[in-house]
Structures are given as structure tokens and as C-alpha cells.
Amino acid sequence: MTRFTPEELEAARDRLVPDVVADGLRVLFCGINPGLMTAATGHHFARPGNRFWPVLQLSGFTPRLLKPSEQRELLSYGLGITNVVARASARADELSAEEYREGGRLLAEKVARLGPRWLAVVGVTAYRAAFDDKKAVVGPQERTIGDSRVWVLPNPSGLNAHWTAATMAEEFARLRVAAEQG
Q: Is 49 among the domain residues?
């Protein structure tokens, strides 16, 4: 993995990282927003402590551990990645309530256009802020966007100590089973 200086990471602030999307995906994973490592590399969930890629494999979504640089391979499994808020920041708490709300509005438009079977938002706090649903919990939601169902997953950030990779993989696997059933 490329090492970045603090200055190089700071220079990635506010950059946009292209989505990995296609029409009709089984699951469109939605992060909160790109971190600075993601923005510096151009690869989603690129921070070494982020558990997204290992959990995808552990849950059976991918047959092997993918590197962030292999993110486009997700499309071959009917999977994609986007974010609630497009701009990169060092921490999610740098985002404003308005950015979350606008991100939710734009995300709903994107989902309606792309038509994934499931939208999977990784991070219950981000989901609550983006969709003004203060009572949402991890798991399937009542909300739909067009024909797309919505599932909230735990945030795979290494900072989310409430969830282990194993317990996260169990929740991701619940979504995988639901996505396979239609």
C-alpha cells in the first residue's frame, strides 16, 4: 500500500471519488463519505483499518479478499459502492446536517435511476441523518426507493468498536441472503 504524508492526505480533502456503479445491481453499498485515504488513492474503503473488504469476503459477498484497488471487480458480483456525501473529509463528524440531508436526497435520485435490488447504507448514524429517520436500527428498513429495498449495516470503520469483523459479517450475510432471494 502506498504511504502518504500528512500533507498528501490533507491535499485530498474535499476530493470526489467516482462511484463504482451499474444499472440493476443486487446491492449498492453506500458509505458515509470518502476518507482522506480513499480520496488520495481513488479507492473506496482504502484506510488499512477499515473492515469493509474483509467483511465482504467473510459474509460471502465475494469469494476472496479484494483489495480496494480491485473495487471494479465488485460489478461482476452485482455489487457497487457510492457515498451519502461525496466530498472527502478526515472524519465523518466534519459533515454538516445539511450535507447529510442533501446527500440523502441525491442518493435517493441515484438509487431511483440505477435500480439496485438493495441499497445498503453502512452506518446507522449516517442513514438517520440522511433520511431523517431517528429511530432506524441496523437491519432491513421499511423505506423503499422506487423498487429498491433499504438495509442499514454497521459502519466498518475500525473506529466502530461495538461491532467485530465476525458480528459485522453476520449482518452483511443476512443482507446477502435477502439479496439472493430477490
A: yes
